[in-house]
Structures are given as structure tokens and as C-alpha cells.
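Notes from the 1:1 (GR / supervisor)

We went over the backlog. Supervisor wanted to see one worked example end to end before approving the batch request, so GR pasted a single chain during the call. The sequence is below; no edits were made to it. Supervisor asked that the structure be written out right there so they could see what the output format looks like.
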Amino acid sequence: MSAGDTRPIGIFDSGMGGLTVMRAIGARLPKERIVYLGDTARLPYGTKSAETVTRYAVQAVRHLRRYDVKAIVVACNTASAVALPALEAALSPLPVIGVVGPGARAAVGATRTGRIAVIATEGTVRGGAYALAIHQLHPGAQVVQRACPLFVALAEEGWVDGPVAALTAERYLSDIFAGDAASRPDTLVLGCTHFPALAGVIAKAAGPGVALVDSAATAAEALAAVLEARGLAQHAGGGAPQFLATDAIERFARVGGLFLGQEVPAGSVELVDLNQ
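Structure output shown during the call:
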């Protein structure tokens, strides 16, 4: 059997949150090699303008092309929400997979009542990308959105449980999930790849009976389908992932394991400059 296309997959995020997507891709496609780039010097993207996010994202994915990647996964909800068309144009004909579309499909598949809450960064909420994608799949859905920017900072610091995280989640979510089960959302989309690290405190604040949805597993399935359809899948081999970051590589290695689900070895993260 041929090894297939042995070039790596490139994954890009504004920081370490996209490692949750990398984890899902590694589980779904264990034979594939991965190059992960976190733009930690310019985190967070969610508070920046669409024009700035687009410029940063285009710089990042062009840097990934230096590694001869065969596909790009934009594991950043903000960049997926505002910059995907620009990224597709910049990288054509390289396939580019975002996380908003897969996340919306997962939410529509999970809801029983059509009442869906989306928590995300300011930029993702402001652009309304999740609401649009959900309504395209489920026109009758009732979607409420909430920007939760402090979750990004908490996740990047590794403060994913304890009183600070719990109180922040309660402050953000208590009014959305107030009332009885017949009127509140039954599905909550974690519309930022940093948020799954806080899933425990988020689930507690949302209350029982609420399905938490993140785009990682669905994005991995979307990538697998694209690779097979284009004859790009790798059937043998694999190899250690490559980690790139634009700042704070020691902290990336120290905290990254919270997102990846396994240790990021010290010294394994390469510092890169996207302006070169």
C-alpha cells in the first residue's frame, strides 16, 4: 500500500487553544504529520478588528506554507469567522478548513429544541458567523450569543478551575441559562478553541441538561473528508508534531498540555517571526 501524501497538515491558532483541534485531528488521523503555529505574540485576536485579524491570519498561514503543508486548518474561531475567504484566496488551491462551519453543524445535530447559545470572542460574536451558519442549517433555531473574552486569558494562564474561573463562568452565563428548562438553551457552543479547557466550570454554570459543543471533532472529520476526496491522505508513517510560536515558547510548552491532553516537551517549541 502506498504511504499516500506524506506532507504535513498545518494548523494555525492565535495561541494555544487550537491544540484542542490538533488533539482531535491526531485522534482521527493518527498517520498524519502536523505542524502547529500559535501566534502567541499577538494574542488575543478576539478583541481586534476584522482587518487586523485578517492581516495576521494571512501572515501566519503563509508562514506555514514554508513547511510544504498539504492543507491548512484554521483552528481559531475568530480568524475562521472573519478571515476565511481571504485565507482561501491567499492559499488557493491549498484546502483551508475553518472551525465555525463544523461547530455549527455539531450544534444543530446536538440541539433538541432549537435553542442554542454561543459563547465566543468579541470578534466572533460581533461578526455573527455562528448565528449565520446555524440558521443556514436550521432556519428556525433561536440563537443567543455572548462574548466571553476573559475565558481566553484564563485558559492561556492555565487557570481552568478554581474560584476565579467558576465565578467568571457564572457571571457570563447565569442570565442566559436562568429560568426553566422549557425556555432556556439546551445546547451551548464553545465558539473559541480556548474554551474547552474550561469546560468543567462552563458546564456547571450552564446547569444540567445542556449539551456542550466544540468544533474540534467535527473539524477533524471535515479535514479527513477533504483529504480523502483530494487524494491527500497519508496511509502510513506519522511522526512527531512540530510546534511553532511567535512568543513565550517556554510558557507554550508548560501550559500547552492542558489543551493537547499530553505533555508538550520542553524545548520542542520553535520561536518564529511572521514578519520575516
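Supervisor's comment: The two ends are 40 Å apart (CA to CA).
Batch request approved.
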